[in-house]
């Protein structure tokens, strides 16, 4: 098995990416290929005493400026670490690709280069978020496309369900439609029609779920259009981070509160870790022919390690084939 | 000044509503009229030794079942505590109306009965949420309508700005457009066109703001369509509540952690109170001719007290007139 990792994507590239790749290589004994400037990768590895002799490196001279639009990135930076990584996967030179770079570019590039599976109208960007009970759930679409149609939302539900079942090992994942109320008539035409389609799909559709319920683990897959999904995703991360920070600040106030912190320190750290999305391995782009993951922009070595760990499960589970089979079955039902 | 309060709206009606109204009446010396079943109001007051002799009561026999749609409520329950309260305001028999009942029904009823101000295309439901720095910001639209057009989003920005300036006393409120990125080209057509219109409006438009920034106080008014706004609003409340609860549970774990809690107890309570939306007085329906507030469904006496307190400011500030003036000015600009 060979996994390509974008050494030049994200805030902590390339050092943390290289470190994470080394951890995973040691643990799982797979082939890892890094894309990025070979000279910089080697220089950083040397400066930090990191042994990268087991990796192959694909030298990619282009560096993507931050202010580019996703379409421009894929058009104008076809020799970037992201584009060449995607190309390797598309050409079957590798089994999967992980990048902590620009999400939009990865979605556009993943769709155009790795290509959609037969029957998939639109791939979905599918980040995972931690709930309060130590589990996680998926938002699909987290922003690959901004709008959606009912059939696309139905497909997101099926894609998410297959991923959560086969990769995250959740049996009969609870798929919910993001909506302003729980009753089936709630929402606009998009939601009402998507509700009817999801209800008729071979998944465990539990109906509409309001966004106040998701942090308590009300569903495993939360289906919505990409604009809404992107705003919920970022709001979820923002509020969780803000509240956690505010609570930690309470302990830093004075010597009395600092003493109090000693009594709960271990449990607070444990809670903070359970809220850490790093261990869930990043967000798959679902509906394309090969596994492609977006790792969080702030990924450290641990996050990259877990992204590689989960990608191995993803590759072994052969999810793309299961998606094609499921979509064929739905199509047969529709025609029959 | 006379304010009508729906004694039969919300989870804690009528007892907490009556208590809150008594607190406000004592403090501000205004006329308060309660709508609801007169016999039950009197019975509950007597059982709890509450003096309601200063209130007028409008007896409303209809009780709204929970599973009704907003349109049905206003059509079929025209003698409900909500409908009669709105009618009094619409007929200039009172200066403002507060209800903790069904949001959708209040938005529909407020629009149909109290009627839109001249030039307002759609009223916006405008809940306020606390930020981590002890301030608050407004989401508009929080769900009065599910979709929007660019001109409607522009109007939401102006409505929100006028309310925050005149009622919440924030000088030059920072109005932001909810979007998936900060650059002006981000989002769909709706966002790009709304961006251009908001930029040309007589408000302090600070551009696109991502939803991960709002909990840290990135803006005073967060403009979006009602579907997105409703999901952000409930997600914000849900995550903040979940994380706070999870942290409190850490302290309850065992005798050691309970001792730790003693050291930070005061500060934790203070933080919890700063996150309590009760003191911000509920959500105005902006763009209609008279002040109408939706108090939170879980409102207690304190929340109702503050809703009445803020409504007094709202009435005194004469916001509806300021809205009409501002909308006239924008129209003149457009024509000139």
Account of the protein in words:
- Two copies of one chain form a homodimer.
- Chain A has 336 residues and is α/β, with parallel strands linked by helices.
- In chain A, 48% of the residues lie in helices and 15% in strands.
- Chain A has helices at residues 15-28, 38-47, 70-76, 81-90, 103-114, 150-166, 189-199, 226-251, 255-274, 301-317, 319-335; strands spanning 2-6, 31-36, 56-59, 96-99, 124-125, 128-130, 136-140, 174-178, 204-209, 221-223, 283-286, 292-294.
- In chain A, the strands form two sheets. Chain A has a seven-stranded mixed sheet with strand order 3-2-1-4-12-11-5, sandwiched between helices. In chain A, strands 6-7-10-8-9 form a five-stranded mixed sheet, with helices on both faces.
- Chain A is globular.
- The two termini of chain A are 39 Å apart.
- At the A-B interface, helix 8 and helix 9 of A face helix 8 and helix 9 of B.
Mean pLDDT of chain A: 91
**How many angstroms does the end-to-end distance of chain A come to?**
39 Å
Number of strands of chain A: 12
Strand content of chain A: 5-15%
Evaluate the radius of gyration of chain A.
21 Å
Shape of chain A: globular
Largest sheet of chain A: 7 strands, mixed
Number of helices of chain A: 11
Say what oligomer this is. homodimer
* Order of H and E elements of chain A: EHEHEHHEHEEEHEHEEHHEEHH
* Largest interface: chains, residues each: A-B, 56 and 56 residues
Strand order of the largest sheet of chain A: 3-2-1-4-12-11-5
Q: Segments of chain A where pLDDT lies below 50 for 5+ residues?
A: none
Percent of residues in helices of chain A comes to 40-55%
Strand-pairing-aware structural class of chain A: alpha/beta
